[in-house]
Prior knowledge:
This protein is an alpha/beta fold.
Amino acid sequence: MALAATFASKISDGSLSVGIIGLGYVGLPTAIGFHDAGFNVWGVDVSQRTVDMVKAGQNPTGDPDVDDIVPAPGTENWHITTSTAEAVPHCDVVLVTVPTPITHDLKPDLSYVEAAGRAVFEAIPKGSNTIVVLESTVYPGVTAQTWMPIVEELGLVIGEDVNIAYCPERFNPGDAAHGVRSVARVIGCADEDVGHALVELYSKLTSEDVRYVGKLEVAEAAKVIENVQRDINIALVNELARIFPAMDVDVEDVLSAAATKWNFHRYTPGVGVGGHCIPVDPYYMIQRAADVGVPAGLITAARAVNRSMPNHVAGVLHDLLYQAGVPAGEGRVLLLGWSYKPEVGDPRETPAEPLAEALQAKNVHVAAWDPHLEGAELPDSVEVIADLEAAEGFDLAVLVTAHQACLSLDWGALQGRMRRSIVYDGRRVLDLEALGALGWQAHAVGRPASE
Ligand SMILES: NC(=O)c1ccc[n+]([C@@H]2O[C@H](COP(=O)([O-])OP(=O)(O)OC[C@H]3O[C@@H](n4cnc5c(N)ncnc54)[C@H](O)[C@@H]3O)[C@@H](O)[C@H]2O)c1
C-alpha cells in the first residue's frame, strides 16, 4: 500500500503516533493540536522544567493561549518525556520544533537542529520507515545538509528506515485567530508519496489548506521569505518614520493617505522588530545567498534599518529629555512593556533591550514594567517595576509593547506621579490628543517633535 494510503488508514483507526521534539512556543501547541485531533502524542523536551510543567498540565511558555489547554496528568495518548530515545520508537512521524537562533556574529546557529536530529535518528528502529519532519525555520538546504550526513553515518536507509521532510510552522503565538489548527501548511519532501502522506496527517491538524510543494528546499525557502518580506515591509515604514518628521510631516498621516489606494499595503513603524523569527530569519537568507555567491542587498539593508531603530529612538528620547531641561545624567525613563509582542510574555530579541542599552549608554536611568513577564526575565541593569501604581519620579514614559494593559492603564494617574510628563508612543497605538488633554507632552515614532 502506498504510504499515503497507509497513513489514511492508520489516521482513521486512531493508531498513528506523532512525536514532537521541542515543547516550546511552536512544539507545545502543535503537540496539543495533534492530541486534540485524535492522535497518540509523544512530546519531548531536553528542559526538565518544561517537561515537569507540561506533565503537571501547566504552560511553560509565555503564550497565554496555551494556559488552559495543556492536557491534565494521566490524559490518555499523551506522553511527555525528556528522552528522545524513549519516545521515537513509538512514533510513525517525528516533528522537530527546536530553536534556530543566530550567533553573536549574526550567523545561523544550527546546533539545535543537528543535536535533536541526531538524537532522533539514533533512536529510529531499523525498517520502521519513520518520517522525520523539521518544522524549525531554516534557510533552503538546511534539512538535507544537516541531517543527511547523520542518516548516512548511522547507516540508515532512506525509504526503508527513515524519510525526511520539511514543514514550516507559521502560526502566531498570542494570536488566537492564527493558531496551529488554523494556518495553511506547505510540505517539502524529495519523495512525493511521503509528501502526500504528510498532507493526510497535517490536514487533521489544521482546517486550512495543506499542500505538497515539491522538494525540501521549496518549503524551506517559502518560510524564510515570508519573514524576509515582513522585515522589508517594516523596514520601509521605519525608514519613512525617520524621513518624514524631518520634513515636519507625520508618517502616520502619510500612511493613512496612501492606504486609500487599493494596492497600498500598510505597516506601522515602531521602536524595532523583535522575536525569534523576523529579526533572525533574514540572516539565514543572507547567509545562504552569500554561500551561492549572490548579493542579498535589499534584505541586508532592511535588516540594518530595523536593527538601528532602537538606537535611533534612544537618540530621539535623549533629545526630548534635554529639551525638557533634564540635567545630563539625571534622566529617568519608564518603558511600558518589554516583551517583543503584545499580550505575550516573550522577551527574545526584544527591541526593548537595545533601546535600554542605548539609553543607559547616554547615562539615562531605565526602568520597565511588563505585566506579562517575570522581573528575572529582564536584564539586571534595568529597574523592574512590579507595580505600576508605585512607579513615580520618571521624566519620560515610552510605550514599547502594545499590551492591552499598557494601552488601558490609568494615564491620568501615571501623569500625576511623573516628575515630567512626557510620553513617547513607540507603537503608534495611543490617542496622543487625549493624552495631551490629560497634561502629557505627547510624542511618537514618525511624528514631528513640533506636533
Ligand atoms: N515562536 C514563534 O512565533 C515561531 C513561529 C513559527 C516558527 N518558529 C520557529 O520554530 C522553531 C522553534 O521556535 P520556538 O519559538 O518554539 O522555540 P522555543 O525556544 O520556545 O522552544 C524550543 C524548545 O526546544 C527545546 N529543545 C532544544 N533542543 C532540544 C533537543 N535536542 N531535544 C528536545 N528539545 C529540545 C527547548 O528546550 C525549547 O523548549 C524555531 O525555528 C522558530 O524560528 C517560531
